[in-house]
Amino acid sequence: MHALRIGGRLACASAAEFLGLWVPRDGRLHVHLWDGSTRLRDRDDRLKRLERREGLALHWSDLVVDDGTRCATSVGSAVRCIAGCFGIEAAIRVADSALQRRRADRAEIRRALDGFAWLEAPAIDAVDGLCGSGYETDAKLLLLAAGLAFEQQVALPRVGIVDFVVCGCVVVEVDGRETHEGAFEADRARDAEALLLGYVTVRVSARWLDANPGRFIELVRAALAVHPRG
Fold first, then answer.
1. 3-state DSSP call for residue 205?
2. What is d(CA 24, CA 16) in angstroms, rounded to the nearest whole number?
3. Which among 177, 186, 178 is positioned nearest to 158, based on CA atoms?
4. Is the pLDDT of residue 35 over 60?
5. How far is the C-alpha of 195 from the C-alpha of 119, rounded, in Å?
6. By CB neighbour count within 10 A (0-12 exposed, 13-18 middle, 19+ buried), where does 147 fall?
7. What is the 3-state secondary structure (H, E, C) of 3-28?
8. Do the beta carbons of residue 34 and residue 67 sit within 8 Å?
9. Bridge partners of 117?
């Protein structure tokens, strides 16, 4: 309602949240305004002109006019806008979630990331739609940057599906609070079964990963070093 009252629609991170995707948060309302938009109104009072712009991010010519709905831009436009506003890694996180949640197809994401690169390769090459959260995407990008071979969403007997298997012998699990809070016993049982199958498990919280990206790779390499096949 705030975006509509201003005279635009949701864009960028705000559109991603509206569309049910992973969201990079900066506390601002992101609004798409068409080129030539005038007479913008206050977000709280349509009878007042827009003068207070704190907490607002206004996006103009970087978006396609006729995509999406009256309320929000399309998934593709949200991803492309996020790449310019938050950086390419944030856009890859959102793109992963869009594919994983089936809110867009790969062709739309490819168009959205056209012209963007990550590690000197087209950014679309880092998008796979297998990550269940933005933090899993963070782990994936760190593993790729470190040159470590891995598989994602691997089903192991008596364990279930694990986030990553690195170099065939180390299980990596990234625990987000929303999916793992209250699962302490179940997670330890999974780790025990993985060990019985010959895997070493590295389990980190999403908060720890966010604060320690460099040490994450050190941790994985340490687990590889103690494994006979590492």
1. strand
2. 9
3. 186
4. yes
5. 34
6. exposed
7. HHHHCCEECHHHHHHHCCCCCCCCCC
8. no
9. 122
Q: What is the pTM of this model?
A: 0.88
Mean pLDDT lowest for which of 6-10, 23-27, 31-35, 108-112?
31-35
Q: How far apart are CA 68 and CA 72, in angstroms?
A: 6
Query: Which residue stretches of the chain are H helix?
Result: 2-6, 12-18, 75-85, 88-100, 106-112, 134-146, 177-180, 184-196, 206-211, 213-226
End-to-end CA distance of the chain: 54
What type of residue is 221?
A: R
Nearest to 18 by CA among 84, 80, 87, 68: 68
For residue 10, list its beta bridge partners. Answer: 31, 72
Nearest residue to 131 via CA among 168, 166, 160, 173: 173
Q: Quote the CA–CA distance of 178 and 192 in Å, as a whole number.
A: 23
What are the tens digits of pLDDT across the range 219-228? 999 999 998 7
Q: Which of 110, 93, 111, 90 is nearest to 101 (CA)?
A: 93
Identity (one letter) of the amino acid at 155?
A: A
pLDDT at residue 109 tops 80: yes
Q: Considering only CA atoms, give the Rg of the chain.
A: 21
Vertex 80 angle, CA 77 and 84, to 5°: 135
